[in-house]
C-alpha cells in the first residue's frame, strides 16, 4: 500500500479572518492580526491553517461573495502582507489552505458586470440567465424561471429590469451562480487556482463545490422542485446537489490544476447533502477528485421539521449511527474529515455539550476527545480550542449574518412570531461562531482597540486564551494533547474503527486497532454519572490511559463507570 498522505496525521485550524484578530483598530480582523497570533497556533500544534475568504469582496456574505479572485480585500490587508503571512506560516512548518468560492461570484465581479450588461455580452452565458416563466410577465409573482427557494430565503432568481431576464443565485442576490457548463468559465477558474498555487499556497477548501453542476436539459430547461411548506417556493436541491457533471468537473480540475503537485496539497470539498456512497467516489485517490469532503449529516441531526432554525435535542444514538456509518463507509477507500464547528455552525459546547460554568470545560474536552479519536482529519474552528460558547445576542440588531437577517425578515413577513424566530436564530444562527476570538479578559477580549464589527461575548472575562494557556487543565491544553497524540500514536491515525454499545443513550464508545495496538475510547456525553456494560471490560481494567479529561483518571481498575462528561482513551497491546 502507498504511504499514507501527509494530511492524515495532522490537524487543520480554520481562521475566519474577520473575527480572528484586528491589528489596526478598525474593528475588523485582518492579516496583520493573524500574523501576530501564529505563536498561538504553533503552541496548539496544528499543521495546516485554512483561511476563510480574504479576497476582494463587497462583504455581503463576509467574503463568500468575491469581486476579484486575485487580490486581497483592503479590509484584510494587501497581497504583500499575504505573501509575508504565507512565508511566516511556512517558516513555522505549517501549511496554508485557501477558501475557493467558485459556485458563484459577487454581482460586482467584472465577469458578472459584463454578463449583465447585455443579452449579447460574450459573458452572458457565464451565469444562469433565463427568461420569465412561459406566458408570464417579468416581475409578476411566480414568474421566476423555476420555483427554487434561495438557501438564504426568498426566490433563487433575481430580475434584471434592463433585459427583463432573471439570473440564478442559490445564495444571496449578490452571489450570482457561475455557469460551469461553459468551458470558458472552467478555464478561468483553473487559471486563477494555478496562480495561487504558484504563489505558494498549499491547497483549497472548496465552497459548496458539489453545487457547481446543475441538472439542465439539452434545451436549457431547469426543473421545478417539490414545494417547501409555508413558502411559495420549491426545493431545487435535487437539481443542483451532486449534479450530473460534478465528477467530470472535479476530475478536470484535478488534471488542469493539481496534477503533478497534488501530493503536497490538501483539497477538501464542502458538500451539503453529500451521502457516504458519493463521498467514496469523491475521495477515492484513484479517481483524482478531492482528498476529503465536509459532509453535513451529523450537524443536521438536531434540525427539526422546520429546518435549521427549528432545532430539536440531539439523540446520541443518532449521532453514533451517523458518524459510525461514515467511519465504515470510508474505511477501505477515501478519507473522512472530522468537524464539530466552522463559521456556519453554532458552537459545539453550547450545542452538544453544556456551556454552564460547571460543565463547560469537561463537556468541551469530552466532545473534542471523541471527534479527534475517529479516523479522519480533524478540523478545529477558531475559539473551539478555548471552549468558546454561543453568543449572547439580545435583539435582531445584534445579528450581522445575511442568512439570519434574511430569515428573520422573510419569516416575520410571513406571519411568524418575531420572538420565536429570534429564539431560533439564537440557537443555530451562524453569528454564534463569528463573535470575536477571546484573547484576553481585557476590553473587547483583546480582539481590537476599536469597536468590534460584531459584539464580543461577555464571558471573555473567564473564557479567553490568556487564561487557557496558563491553565494545564484548560480546553486549550486538552486540544494540544489530542493533536500531539495524533502525531505520536499511529493507531489514532490509521487504526480500524469499531463502534461499541450503539444503543447506549449516554455513552459513546469505540475501539481503534492497528496491528497489536488497540485503543478504547470512552465518553460520557451527559451531565450524570453513568455505567456501561462494555464487552471485554475486564480486559481493559487497569490499562494505560493515554489521555483523559478529568484529573487523576489513570489506569482505573473499573472502566465501566464514567463521571459526568468524562472521556478517556485507553491503550493496550
Ligand atoms: O456554506 C454552504 C451552506 O450551504 C451552508 O452551510 C450555509 O452556511 C447555510 O448555513 C445553510 O443553511 C458555504 C459557506 O461555508 C458559507 O459561509 C457561505 O455563506 C455559503 O457557502 C455561500 O458561499
Ligand atoms: Ca482591521
TrEMBL record:
Naturally occurring in which organism (per UniProt): Kocuria turfanensis
Family to which this protein belongs: Belongs to the glycosyl hydrolase 13 family.
Keywords assigned: Glycosidase, Hydrolase
Top-rank taxon, per record: Bacteria
GO MF entries: alpha-amylase activity
SMART domains attached to this UniProt entry: Aamy
Name listed for the protein in its UniProt record: Glucohydrolase
GO biological process terms on file: oligosaccharide catabolic process
Limits of the Glycosyl hydrolase family 13 catalytic domain: 14-434
Amino acid at each position: 500500500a502507498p504511504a499514507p498522505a501527509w494530511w492524515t496525521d495532522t490537524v487543520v485550524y480554520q481562521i475566519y479572518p474577520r473575527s480572528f484578530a484586528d491589528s489596526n483598530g478598525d474593528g475588523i480582523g485582518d492579516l496583520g492580526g493573524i500574523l501576530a497570533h501564529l505563536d498561538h497556533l504553533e503552541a496548539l500544534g496544528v499543521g495546516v491553517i485554512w483561511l476563510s475568504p480574504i479576497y476582494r469582496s463587497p462583504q455581503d456574505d463576509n467574503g463568500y461573495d468575491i469581486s476579484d479572485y486575485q487580490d486581497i480585500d483592503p479590509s484584510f490587508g494587501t497581497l504583500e502582507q499575504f505573501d509575508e503571512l504565507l512565508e511566516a506560516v511556512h517558516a513555522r512548518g505549517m501549511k496554508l489552505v485557501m477558501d475557493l468560492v467558485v459556485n458563484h461570484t459577487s454581482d460586482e465581479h467584472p465577469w458578472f458586470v459584463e454578463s449583465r450588461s447585455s443579452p449579447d455580452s460574450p459573458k452572458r452565458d457565464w451565469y444562469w440567465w433565463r427568461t420569465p416563466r412561459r406566458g408570464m410577465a417579468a416581475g409578476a409573482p411566480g414568474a421566476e424561471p423555476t420555483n427554487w427557494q434561495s438557501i438564504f430565503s426568498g426566490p433563487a432568481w433575481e430580475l434584471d429590469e434592463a433585459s427583463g431576464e432573471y439570473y440564478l443565485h442559490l445564495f444571496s442576490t449578490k452571489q450570482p451562480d457561475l455557469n460551469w457548463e461553459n468551458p470558458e468559465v472552467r478555464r478561468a477558474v483553473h487559471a486563477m487556482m494555478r496562480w495561487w498555487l504558484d504563489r505558494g499556497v498549499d491547497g483549497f477548501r472548496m465552497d459548496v463545490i458539489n453545487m457547481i453542476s446543475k441538472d439542465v436539459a439539452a434545451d436549457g430547461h431547469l426543473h421545478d422542485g417539490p414545494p417547501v411548506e409555508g413558502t411559495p417556493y420549491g426545493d431545487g436541491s435535487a437539481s443542483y446537489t451532486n449534479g450530473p457533471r460534478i465528477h467530470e468537473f472535479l476530475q478536470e480540475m484535478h488534471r488542469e490544476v493539481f496534477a503533478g503537485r497534488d501530493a503536497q496539497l490538501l483539497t477538501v470539498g464542502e458538500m451539503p447533502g453529500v451521502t457516504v456512497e458519493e463521498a467514496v467516489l469523491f475521495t477515492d485517490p484513484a479517481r483524482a477528485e478531492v482528498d476529503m469532503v465536509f459532509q453535513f449529516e451529523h450537524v443536521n441531526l438536531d434540525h427539526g421539521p422546520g429546518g435549521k432554525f427549528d432545532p430539536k435535542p440531539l439523540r446520541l444514538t443518532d449521532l453514533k449511527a451517523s458518524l459510525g456509518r461514515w467511519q465504515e463507509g470510508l474505511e477501505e477507500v477515501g478519507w473522512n474529515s472530522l468537524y464539530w464547528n466552522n463559521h456556519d455552525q453554532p458552537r459545539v459546547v453550547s450545542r452538544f455539550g453544556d456551556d454552564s460554568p460547571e460543565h463547560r470545560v469537561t463537556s468541551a474536552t469530552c466532545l473534542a476527545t471523541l471527534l479527534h479519536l475517529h479516523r479522519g482529519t480533524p478540523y478545529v474552528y477558531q475559539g473551539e480550542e478555548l471552549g468558546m460558547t454561543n453568543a449572547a445576542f439580545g435583539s435582531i440588531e445584534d445579528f450581522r449574518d445575511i442568512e439570519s437577517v434574511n430569515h428573520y425578515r422573510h419569516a416575520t413577513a410571513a406571519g411568524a412570531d418575531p420572538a420565536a424566530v429570534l429564539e431560533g436564530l439564537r440557537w443555530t444562527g451562524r453569528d454564534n461562531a463569528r463573535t470575536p476570538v477571546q484573547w484576553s479578559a481585557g476590553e473587547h477580549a483583546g480582539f481590537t482597540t476599536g469597536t468590534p464589527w460584531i459584539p464580543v461575548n461577555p464571558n471573555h472575562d473567564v473564557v479567553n486564551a490568556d487564561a487557557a494557556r496558563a491553565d494545564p487543565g484548560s480546553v486549550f491544553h486538552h486540544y494540544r494533547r489530542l493533536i500531539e497524540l495524533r502525531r505520536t500514536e499511529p493507531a489514532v491515525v490509521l487504526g480500524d474503527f469499531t463502534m461499541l454499545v450503539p444503543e447506549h443513550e449516554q455513552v459513546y464508545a469505540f475501539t481503534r486497532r492497528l496491528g497489536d495496538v488497540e485503543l478504547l475510547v470512552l465518553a460520557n456525553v451527559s451531565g450524570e454519572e453513568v455505567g456501561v456494560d462494555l464487552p471485554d471490560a475486564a480486559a481493559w481494567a487497569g490499562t494505560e490511559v493515554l489521555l483523559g479529561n478529568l484529573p487523576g483518571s489513570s489506569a482505573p481498575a473499573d472502566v465501566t463507570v464514567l463521571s459526568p462528561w468524562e472521556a478517556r482513551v485507553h491503550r493496550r497491546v
